[in-house]
Write a structure and sequence with these properties.
- This protein is 48% helix and 18% strand.
- A hairpin with a 6-residue loop joins strand 1 and strand 2.
- It is globular.
């Protein structure tokens, strides 16, 4: 791929992730996200769930685990549809602790699945035996809070009221948590709009060529680093 085109498109992907993170932080209700920036955003391969691009403001632990989360979501929902958003906090499937809730949105361009957008945020409360979820005396995971398998929190572009009611009934600060949920979904919306604008200019073919080249470039860099070590 032409080096100049590669640099421009790579920068567009990184800027998309940066705008997702900025949107999430600015719109979040809870201080742990709005001030502590306990979150991360990224873009992932449509078939394998592998990393394409990630923001540089997210916590490193989220940057590492989000790929596993996307792959787990794909194993549960192998045929995603436009307008769907999936949420999960499973600590045994790419998660961290129950308060870190991940959302994944399949991104379609002209009815073609192009990639997945992902966002992680630390919720202020997830239920459980103690506020905040840090149950130091817990003897089983059920005492720590609500354990969410991959589920559709949005369908046809709208929040799933049944799922939302279940979540908000199990947290101690439902109004604050609703604000963070909408902030997460808003970050995904921003990512989708930015990618649409990018693909309007470069097309799906160039995007796929870009992602393939980025993977090859990443492999060359890590092999060179290991050779130096």
């Amino acid at each position: 791929m032409d080096p100049v085109a590669l640099a421009v498109l790579k920068g567009a992907l990184e800027q998309t992730c940066a705008e997702m993170e900025s949107t999430f932080v600015r719109a979040a209700f809870s201080p742990v996200i709005a001030e502590g920036q306990d979150m991360a955003c990224g873009i992932y391969d449509p078939r394998t769930g592998e990393v394409i691009a990630q923001g540089d403001a997210g916590l490193p632990i989220f940057v590492v685990t989000m790929q596993d989360v996307v792959q787990h979501v794909l194993s549960v929902f192998p045929a995603p549809r436009p307008g769907e958003v999936y949420a999960t906090n499973d600590p045994y499937k790419g998660g961290t602790h129950l308060m870190d809730v991940k959302m994944v949105r399949p991104f379609f361009y002209q009815d073609q699945l192009v990639c997945h957008l992902g966002v992680t945020g630390h919720w202020t409360d997830i239920g459980g035996s103690v506020p905040g979820g840090y149950a130091s005396r817990a003897t089983e995971i059920y005492q720590e809070g609500l354990w969410i398998p991959p589920l559709r929190i949005c369908r046809d572009g709208r929040l799933n009221d049944d799922v939302l009611s279940l979540i908000l009934r199990n947290v101690r600060v439902p109004r604050q948590q609703l604000g963070d949920i909408k902030a997460q979904i808003g970050a995904l919306d921003v990512g989708a709009r930015r990618l649409t604008r990018m693909l309007d200019k470069c097309g799906v073919g160039s995007f796929q060529e870009l992602t393939a080249e980025l993977r090859a470039y990443a492999e060359r860099k890590i092999r060179a680093y290991l050779a130096d070590v």
